[in-house]
Automatic annotation (TrEMBL):
Residues 1-29 form the signal peptide. The record marks K787 as: Interaction with the cone snail toxin Con-ikot-ikot. It comes from Anopheles merus (Mosquito). This is Glutamate receptor 1. Gene3D superfamilies: 1.10.287.70, 3.40.50.2300, Periplasmic binding protein-like II. Residues 899-911 have a biased composition (Basic and acidic residues). The chain crosses the membrane at residues 564-583, 640-662, 831-852. It comes from the Eukaryota. Residues 431-804 form the Ionotropic glutamate receptor C-terminal domain. Keywords: Cell membrane, Disulfide bond, Glycoprotein, Ion channel, Ion transport, Ligand-gated ion channel, Membrane, Postsynaptic cell membrane, Receptor, Signal, Synapse, Transmembrane, Transmembrane helix, Transport.
Amino acid sequence: MQCFGRVMGFNFLSVILLLVHVLCGYVDGKREIPVGAIFHQVPDHSYESEIAFRYAIERVNMHEKHFELVPIVRYVSPDDSYKTERKMCELAAEGVTAVFGPSSILTSGIVGSICKTLEIPHIITHWDPEPFGGLDPDLQAMTINLYPEADVLSRALADLIVDYSWKSFTIIYDSDEGLMRLKDILQIHGPSDSPITVRQIDDNPDYRPLLKDIQTSGESHIILEIRPDRILELLRQAKEVKMLEEYQSYIITSLDAHTIDFEELRYSRSNITALRLMDTKSFDIKNAVHDWEQGEARMKRQFRVSPEHVHTESALYNDAVKIYATAIRELDATEEITPSRLSCGSKNLRQWPFGLRIINYMKVKTEHGITGPIIFDDYGRRAHFHLDIIELSKDEGFKKIATWDPTHGVNYTRSQGEVYSQIVESLQNKTFIVASRIGAPFLMFKEKKDGEFLEGNNRFEGYSLELIDGISKILGFQYRMELVPDGKYGSYNKVTKKWDGLVKHLLDRKADLAVCDLTITYERRTAVDFTMPFMTLGISILYAKPVQQPKDLFSFLSPLSLDVWIYTATAYLGVSVLLFVLSRMAPADWENPHPCKQDNDEVENIWDMLNALWLTMGSIMGQGCDILPKAISTRLVAGMWWFFALIMLSSYTANLAAFLTMERMDATIESAEDLAKQSKIKYGVLMGGSTMAFFQTSNFSTYQRMWASMESVRPSVFTKSNDEGRDRVIKGKRMYAFLMESTSLEYITERYCDLTQIGGLLDSKGYGIAMPVNSPYRTAISGAVLKMQEEGKLHQLKTRWWKEMRGGGQCTEAPNSAGENELGIGNVGGVFVVLALGCFCAFIIGILEFLWNVRKVAVEEKITPWDALKAEMKFALNISVTSKPVHNTLSESTASDKSSLRSKSESRRGSELTGRGNNVRTATSLNNLNKIGFVFDKH
């Protein structure tokens, strides 16, 4: 009508020229190129997509000088295939050069088939699955799809799940088409991984029963593959059944999740993540939205939409028109593109000659639109694209946290500092439920004072309480300690396929943290998360010290065995006899008793049995002897005996030193290998603990043998607690050993001095603070633990609760512990007893010898024994006299006749000297006095 209105007032020639231009497809000097579009007649965002389509064409026409795109729009029902075919044929008859849409798989397939026959470009903007049997290049020849390729989009979701470390999850879907979109997600699950649950929802708007079932199963990771109009209602109901708590995480697969108003859920504690194909803050999308609003305003229609809520399909229509117009522009520069009216039912079927060239150009052309880079593969699928990973935040709604592309995968745009700050901020004024169990010194009931009432955290004390208290002061949260009902650490029952203890408490979401001597193991790590270790340890053996034996006065004999002493005594006697015999036989040992008398016919031998015994005794005592053998044979025997004595003395000294330094125990075990090799001493572990799991799963033959032994012993050697194991060791009287973690063992040995650690550590592991999987607080709490470690607070806590509190330190060894291995008087007192006994015997012998001499003097002097005794005693007690006459002074009864006594004594001197000469000669033989030139007095 506008064209005909413009004809009024023109002359006939002008009218003819205008009619020619109109018939040839020209308007205002531009060639008309009609493009068709098919939209669905449903109350959804199709209206927004149509607006995007129309105003994208309008913007193209504003900049084009040679052609003008003319939109021709038709409407069909999503499931009306007959009407769709008819509308498509109408568009072909009107000479459309391309068809956009529709957005359902059923109707789009019909349109694509007709476009393939007529070679009209078909451009779609929805998810399209790969046909069964694979893609057919001929069937896909005329179709271009701007929606992300199905397999690549599925891979993006799989990469996100792997990055989030989801080992198990539940998929909620509402259509078979949706389940097909998650093909790659299902394929990343291995046979040994945790099970993946797939649940379908129907048209029933009550999702609570389904959500409660998921909650009962303990699953906290959920993937929502449902229509956008159902997402908000499902999450509302999830909030009602407490499925939007801290440890629940949701991934929404719809690329339109950002268009939903989550205002009422922004303050939920759960993590809600979605994907977005466009950057809502880009200039292109803001410019496009401005065109939509201004265009509708010119048409007296009101339309409002923010760039953050633009639907993906609308953005794709905008980009589809842009890339199609680019293809027309580029090809039209080389040859004029003219539309053709085509018929679907004509016998002489004609095809549009430009359609295939336009499609091929679009496949090789790279453009950048609202939805990012637009690159197609040989099948016309969009195989390369960028996705924004967005997360629902309290302040901004959906916030971009990362990007994804097929080349680089997930790439986070926020720094670790931002994440940490966000987590710490969320911890403010939060109250954690901290699960634990009673076990010294980690957590114990506080001893009440008279009249004192304790409640809450004040009921407890111990290392765990002070550890979590220190962390809470660093991060600024509150906490409430609770005891796990069964008092167990946490082990997995392969029969029931359930956990118990602290791990179960966390899985049931009854606690936020678990703090105690909970060992970090691979099996537990699959169920819960751990912070960095706050204490390192290993498995060791608790055993009773030997009973203190009564001290032996003759312990100094212990360095050498009884057999050695017997052999030494035998050797002593044998060498003495051999020396005596050889000296009797050797000519060199027979000597002249009077060296001054060269013509003496008699020689003597000083080596009687007594001297032989004395020589060997002096040698073994290391003191030597004044006389030595002269013959070669006797010298050789003496030398060999000296060598033997030196070796024996060195051996005794070495063994004595070892005896002094060794720990005097009668222990029969020193390591786990010793336990495994014997069957007399029983040994066990804590039932259901990590130590038990260590032996169960170990591949080391020694530990396998130990586990088999423990499992087969009756009565059972397993205990319900470490305290029970400690008591069994005490009562077992060194017939039971308990394998336990070194930290608990150290605590026990600090307080029970009759118990000790045997051997070293069997393994190395650590205690950590446990929390539900993917807890957002793990990084912050690990950082707090590291800070306490660097400041030395962890060491201070251990020293306080191991060595100071609750009786600690009473078994600690003194700083100078050298004396503990010394032989005390109780051990070597026998040496003093032997010395005293020898001195007493020597004293008795000396008395007897003195009395014998007194008797001899009395006989010789013909005086009474009493006088002789007094005279000898008087001389002996006069310590100032250093020389003694041959005869002592006589008794006082004959002192008056001193002169007669002196003369009498002198008259008898001659005969006395003769008798004493023999004695001197004997003494000379004993003392070898002839060697020092003793001169006899001749009378």
